[in-house]
Fold this sequence. Notes:
It is a single chain. With about 270 residues, this protein is mainly α. It contains nine helices and no strands. Helix 3 runs parallel beside helix 7 (about 190-230). The longest helix is centred in the last third of the chain and has 40 residues, at about 190-230.
Amino acid sequence: xxTADTIRAVFLIFAIAICAAALVIVPAAAxxxxxxxxxxxxxxxxxxxxxxxxxxxxxxxxxxxWTVMILFTVLTLLPALLLSMTPFVRILIVFHFLRQALGTxxxxxxxxxxxxxxxxxxxxxxxxxxxxxxxxxxPFQSGSITAWQAVERSADPLRxxxxxxxxxxxxxxxxxxxxxxxxxxxxxxxxxxxVPAYIISELKTGFQIGAVLFLPFLVxxxxxxxxxxxxxxxxxxxxxxxxxxxxxxxxxxxxxxLIVGSTLKSFY
Length: 268
């Protein structure tokens, strides 16, 4: 064997020895060296309550779907409740009769009359609202009753208020139509009888006040028409003269104070 082959064989053996030593030493060193501590997983946050919080509505006795359903039902029926279970109907009818009697078709505007009727309705219904708050809303907010029990309790003050201004004839009519037994006292009547009877009574009362309100202005129209006809002013419409006279009489007599005061006194 030549010298070159001998040197090549020595280098090959030396390389194999180094690789073998590396395969033995490196795993041993890795096993002997301390392993770094694994980081502990961060604690998971507590599950958050994703429930929609409605002030005064989410209580321990009621689930969210029911409270939301009751809330939206009340908001949907609010205009009907306002029209059927409050003095709003009577007050608004009186105001419309007044505008027709004065002969002013658009003054005051519908928005003005409705706004005034709303505030007068709030004025009359405030004691009833206080009673409802005491017997229904406060126990409901404290969690002592459920939402449905609160609705049932709030019906008692409204029933008492409506029965005070409902005619017995109208109550008898709807008791007969509903085929319900005649109750021992008015408080035992159901709302399906009391509400329509109250609406009919309020309509009649409003028309009675409106008819009485119409009479003095009708007299002015008749007098002006007779005078213009007697003097031969056939081409001049009597409304042109009677309307300013009626407005002047209404302003001098402080008509708004009289009308509003008389309408509110009919509830006391």
